[in-house]
Amino acid sequence: MSTAYVLQNFSTGRTFQDTGWLLSDPLDETPSLIRAVYKKKRLDCEDPDRGLYRFADWLPVNRILKGSAAPVTYRSRGLASYLGLENLYITFNGYWPEKGALMRTCSFKETEAFSVCAHIPEGEKRTMVVASAGNTARAFARVCSENGIPLLLFVPYDNLDTLWFDKPLDPCVQLLCSPPGSDYFDAIEMSNRFCEDAARYFAEGGAKNIARRDGMGTTVLSAATTIGRIPDYYFQAVGSGTGVIAAWEANKRLIEDGRFGDTLMRLIPSQNAPFLPIYEAWNNTGRVMHVMEASDARKKSASIRARVLSNRKPPYGIPGGLYDALVDTGGYMDYATNQELERAMALFEELEGIDIDPAAGVATASLVNNVKGGKVDRSSVVMLNITGGGEARFKKENEIFYLKPVEETSLLSA
Q1: Could you tell me the pTM of the whole model?
Q2: In sequence order, what are the residues at sequence separation of 6 or more whose Cβ sits closer than 8 angstroms to the Cβ of residue 224?
Q3: Mean pLDDT value of segment 29-49
């Protein structure tokens, strides 16, 4: 299969064909995100048994991979009652069989991994390179291992505990770590060195990759098709903000579809204090973001409970990035402290019945604070994107294996 679409430069509006693995407009050197414009304007959700690929009409995929699961949206009772919200919908990404949630890495990063890996052109012999703070690496490792796709991962050494799996991985997946005390940005810098060898490696591309964003946008497709309309508010924790950009883009497609209303969701992303580069830029410098000093970034990333939210160079100011998404939707940045997210995690498990990860705790804390602060109309349709959950339960029910790093010299000499 091959989904029909063209690419569009966000800044100029120019449309052009995707020649295989484009991360920018080849005729425009000015930085800008590109988007997929799908031929099919009305979304036909396929059989739920197709997993994530039930949304294949709006995914730039060339094939269907085995083992995917889609986000699951349900109407909240417990948390909604606690907050006095009439229409709180939770989009759950993780492991919760009773709800039909079957993501075995317990993270919404599976949505991007299954989309990106299915976007790889047929006949590609090189190894894909992915840098991650943890959850993205776990998702890509699982998808690539089960589908025989060569992958080289780069993860900070201090985040090795995030690379857990329910079975040993295929040797097609290899891992290198940046040193102890380093952060996600250091892992990215390390991965870039390998990508200079273009004959052997290619970069996945992060936020610039349309397949990554459109995979993550399936959370909003799940919500809108379940609710029957586009939500009014959208809450999610962010490290890079790519998932929120994806939500904005999916929202626009749903408006064009015409069956889900014309609401532009108010986006309310949140970070984990004290690691707040996006929050501080939004409140102090507008589109311009000052890159965090390395020592300060490493210190703050080590101090936050949601370590996966520690990207010090996110796609914020680039045209089509998070800044534009917030401006367009009347949204704003928020944050939660370690103490607030811990309370929110406990509250969610008590009221909804499943454990959630610290990043999802940040989003939940932000929702709680905004509702109690009177910033959310209690009768509005609110979407809470739980980006990871069920990990504690999954680990109780399964034997767990950890991916170990290889020696860098073995890859350089191979």
Answers
A1: 0.96
A2: 230, 231, 254, 260
A3: 93
